[in-house]
Amino acid sequence: MTQPFTVDLNCDMGESFGAYQLGNDAAILPYITSANIACGFHAGDPAVMRKTVRLALQHQVVIGAHPGLPDIMGFGRREIAVSSEEAFDMVVYQIGALGGFLAAEGGTLHHVKPHGALYNMAAVSAPLAEAIAEAVYRVNPELVLYGLAGSELTKSGTKLGLQVAHEVFADRTYQLDGTLTSRRLPNALLTTSEEAARQVVRMVKEGQVCAQQGTDVAIRADTICIHGDGAHALEFARHINQTLQNEGVSLQAFTKAAQ
What we know:
Layout: E1 5-13, H1 25-28, E2 34-38, H2 46-58, E3 62-66, H3 84-105, E4 109-112, H4 116-124, H5 126-139, E5 144-148, H6 152-160, E6 163-169, H7 193-206, E7 208-210, E8 216-218, E9 223-226, H8 233-246, E10 249-251
Parallel strand pairs: 1-2, 1-9, 1-10, 2-3, 3-4, 4-5, 5-6, 6-9
Antiparallel strand pairs: 7-8
């Protein structure tokens, strides 16, 4: 009997702030199963956090904190040489901020997924990964830690005893070591929903992704990320959702039983 496939479809959200509108959260929410909500450092503000939490709860989408580096000008995608202690503190702070809005709205925090440069740095730096995992564990050991599949971050979370979701990306290309192609390099992004859907189906059903160098790399896909700030985010979400279901893949929020 064929083993059924189940995967979580997540999206980075709540990244508007002040007078600046980013993404189309309300339209994307019906197509995903979990939302990573910005916590005010790389994007987001208190009003946006509250509104996004309410929207996600209305759509019965599980909610995660999306802590980033303190860099609104660079959208959290520029590396900053933070110490392990600084990373610990900023992650605890941001989880607490979003947790306050969830408590006020009657919701529960499900997971934590670092954003942008903080995420990529933690994927290859064991000390930084350990600090982030420790921050999540100390706030609540029942939280799920989302991290790049097979990275230092997922290893650190597992070592601490956290539930860990290995994350893959619908709209990014990969290198031979399983890391994402830097946005500073050519062809870092997949630009059509058809390309993204083909890559996603293969990662979920075959556990493989073709690196930029043309070689297949083994990969584990517990959760798939769609970037909410992308120009075609809604199209990607809709097309990937439908393609996965057509391929017999069930969409549901990540749970410990799925590990």
